[in-house]
Design a protein that fits this description.
single chain, mainly alpha
């Protein structure tokens, strides 16, 4: 159950940040810089958000220290995030 909670929280954090940043990008940066330059300007910020969300989620929902379990749980989190992303896109 911790795996489901961790994947959901991570997805919600990154998705919410991406939503806020994309609105700012389209309304403020695109008219000033152009579409492609605005997207490129957003990328480092999203990278930082992803790294911080992963770090916070990993500390908030501790995973097992044994390598096989950690690897399985990481793959499970990744597939769960992909599933949530597919639901939101589709």
């Amino acid at each position: 159950m911790t795996l489901v909670k961790a994947g959901t929280v991570y997805f919600l954090l990154v998705f919410a940040a991406g939503l806020v940043l994309s609105v700012f990008r389209e309304l403020r940066l695109s008219p000033w810089l152009g579409a492609k330059a605005a997207e490129l300007a957003e990328m480092p910020v999203m990278w930082l958000v992803i790294a911080l969300a992963a770090r916070w989620t990993g500390r908030r929902f501790p995973l097992s220290a044994t390598p096989p379990t950690r690897l399985w749980r990481t793959d499970g989190c990744c597939s769960q995030r992909l599933g949530w992303y597919s639901v939101c896109e589709g």
